Write the structure tokens for this entry.
Amino acid sequence: MSNQEEGSKTVLAAQELTKQVSSPEGTLTILSDVSFQVGAGESVAIIGASGAGKSTLLALLAGLDLPTEGYVTLNGNNLGQLDEDGRARIRAESVGFVFQSFHLVPSLNALENVMLPLELAGNADPRKAASAIIDKVGLKDRWSHYPAQLSGGEKQRVAIARAFATEPAVLFADEPTGNLDARTGEKIMQLMFELNQSSSTTLVLVTHDSALAERCDRVISLDAGKLVSDERAAA
Amino acid sequence: MKALIFSLRSFGRELRSGEVLVLLSAVVLAVGALTAVGFLTDRIGKAVARQANEVLAADLRLRSQEPVPDSWREQALSYGLRTANMVAFPSVVYADESSALTTVLAVGDGYPLRGTVRIADRLFGEELEANGVPRPGEVWADGSLLARTDASVGDTVEVGAATLRVSAVVTYRPDQSIGFASLAPTLLMNEADLAATDLIGVGSRVRYSLLVAGNDEAVAEFNAAIEDELPDSLRLRSAEESSERAFAAADRAQRFLSLTAVISLLLSAVAIAMSARRFAQRRMDTVALMKSLGATQSFVITVAMIQLVMVGVIGVAIGSVIGFAAETTLSWLLADIIAGDLPDPGFTPVVLASGSALVLLVGFALPSLIQLRNTPPLRVLRHDAMPPAPSRLLVAGLALAAVAALLYRSVGDARMLVIVLGGIIAIAGALYAVGRGLVGTMGRFRSGVGVAWRYGLANVARRGRASAVQVVAFGLGLTVLLLLTLVRTDLLEGWRQTLDENAPNQFLINIQPHETESVAGIFEAREILPPDFSPLVRARMIEINGTGVKERSYPDPGGEWFANREQNLSFASTLSDSNEILEGEWWPEDYSGPPLVSIEEEAAMETGLGLGDVLRFEVAGQTVEATIASVRTINWDSFQPNFFLVFSPGALADFPTTYIASMRVEQHERPALVELVRKHPTISVIDLDSILRQVRGIIEKASLAVQAVFFFTLAAGIAVLFAAVQSTIDERRFESAMLRALGAKKRIVFSGVMAEFAALGAAAGLLASAGASVLAAIVAIELFNLPYSFNPMLWVVGMAAGIVVVCASGFFAARSAINSAPVDILRGAGA
Ligand SMILES: Nc1ncnc2c1ncn2[C@@H]1O[C@H](COP(=O)(O)OP(=O)(O)O)[C@@H](O)[C@H]1O
Ligand SMILES: [Mg+2]
């Protein structure tokens, strides 16, 4: 399942990431000194118990939030040196997201949801590109449906289509099967890996499901905010 | 461009989502309500003012001792105004053998410019509206002139050198209360006959008037243009100076209408503020998502602004249609009150209302929407990630600026604006403080109640700040509605007395002591209740506590005038029922000690007099001294003889006394009055009937207007509160789905939500009752000059209204939330 080659170009690097938040009980360190690099086309699973800091790490990697210390480079850009709009531009150009709770825009239909990142990235013919990818995720007949009219699995398909539509360099997924039953979850993961392979996108997948993690090239595990292991799957 | 496409694409769909719909409804409602109330207040205000102008038979009068130069008439015409001439002079009118001192009124075509003259073809005959003025050669005479001269319709009378035929009896003249003081009967003639009388010459006491009327703006412009150019010999008269009583009623009605306008504005502000808040909050998720997908801040803010503009445009469009329909319906319903020559329903109220709604929308929604751009994209992963709250200074500043700008239009002057705005801020602040306290305490009761109430109260307490904000918003809305109710009740109650059908309508004055028995006899013979006679002694005040009235200083110039003028003193053993003692005590019925006197409150205040002060009077060359034993208020609306100074019985027994009396004489009993003036020609009968009718006309219209505006505002206000409650339903929707997913029965969850609403409603009602009590007292005293009476029912009504309105609107909102399957809601949360 690996399409990664040792020493290929690095697209994503975390350098001594630490995240602290202030809480009523004082400063809380929820991520501490995490460093790693991800090469182009690699698929990485981030695992750990609930509350280990997986989502926090993902948010920092995608530039949704800024670390207290350390920095992230994404596609050659140091996210810490950009302002919010700058980071947004990077996301528009090279990042895709799949969330646990889908996060479709309820007022837009499936096709329009997929068109949204294309339009934000300035695609010349967003409708055509979006239709093509909607077909690929198997929702050809349902493109005009609104999120409220779709099942959980179908919503996640739309979300996946939206994530891949811009052919991002990196795709971040935060527990994409968390809200789905086992069978649907399996199908969704199948779809994601297929698309990932065919588009040679780098995949960063947060999960607490070790079976799912096994299917990635590499597994990074977190515990209480610390990186405890970083293992490549046996080829 | 992208932003525009995105906004347009999603807007249709978002319209169906709660928050856009609620904000849109708030705007629609605001435009509709403001249009209708604005239209009503403007229209009715004008109608009432116009009715009040009837007492002038014109909108303006120019008066002079010399003929009014034609240039003024031409100037009035150039403003598109109508004019009429009137010449008034006293003269003795002869009919056969008898004669009577008469006020002759020579009028030109067009008179009266406002109101109509009513005439009858014989004394006490059936009256009808006169068409025009007496033809040349003819006159219309007062009934009392015919009675005194023993003449009838068809006879001729001599006015100076002219002989004129009486062709009708005047039963009503709109301007008859002008010159009320001259008790002589009047005779209406055509100005063409003036020269033939030969009475107009050097030394004759003639008053010339130019009557002017037309549309309001033109009159105002004309008035402004001539005001400063008038020579000393010309005087301008407006209705206000001419009939204080009629004008006071109209003025109070106007104030009530302004108050209503302010209140509808505040209600609209509450609705828009609540729904704008929710609109911005609900945008956060979409904004976070778009940012995570790479949208920039400017894109996000543009989308939000475009949507706000669309809400504004659509809201104003629908609201205008509703407002216009309301205008048309209202003007049709109120056709009776609204004088015919007022402009038709127009676009002005709609435009003003739309502008106001947009200002409110911007003022309340903008700060939170601008802050949306700072929504952290992290929110897609952590739902509690929020944008920093917009600066409170900005939020409060902009909202206040919006409200202030709009209030200024209805309030008019800066001082009032500061008072009203200060009042609102103080009340909102107090509501918030008490609301927080109340919300805090409520949580503590939850251990002693059932599961539904526990859940409801716990929710109120948990949402502390949000609950308090809701309580303030509902409370403020209820406060103004309660205030309106209170003021309306006071106003109508005050007017009801004036409208009393049994109020006296005839004043008899100058009755000699020996005549009282004979006068009473005339009425008794016809089985009419004879009047009570009040003694009247003319006197001058010469000393107060031993100091001459001229040497003394007074707290008010009115007091100096009062102390120096000729006094009408009276004496009585019992207190008139239109009087009320404020200080001191009324003397016993059989009192016979040293002279005591009771003084009217305002006179006492202005002269700086109080209990125990000693007044010395000069009466017909003798003096009498009396000590002030009580201070009274007088209800002048009672139309009964009343006196500033009333003495204890016996104190004035030795002085020349005449009597005055007031009584009610029905139409069919009027021949008694004819007999009275024939038997006792020195007694003057003042017919108050037509003045009363005039005052009543104004008051009836004003009351009707007040009622109509009140009910409309009440309905609009409740609708607005409804909308406000809808805007708080989201979080409850989600929670109740959760509870049901956990196995709670629908009924329990529903009761819980209702308990929460009931608690909020009760708190809001309680606060509103307190707020309205204080405000009503201020408004009653400052704005309407009405005595304020505390009403404990208000608290019951306030609480009940709070619970009912909030629960009823909560019921509809919560029902849909609770009836949909929990899975839909829970799943919907992760669209
Ligand atoms: N802004 C924050 N404030 C307080 N605690 C936070 C914040 N962000 C994350 N946490 C805490 O940090 C820990 C890690 O959170 P998260 O990254 O969401 O864990 P995971 O995704 O691995 O379940 C949790 O205990 C969470 O409550
Ligand atoms: Mg997580």
Observations:
- The interface with chain A takes residues 2, 5-6, 9-11, 13-14, 17, 286, 289-299, 376-378, 380-382, 827-831 of chain B (CB under 8 Å).
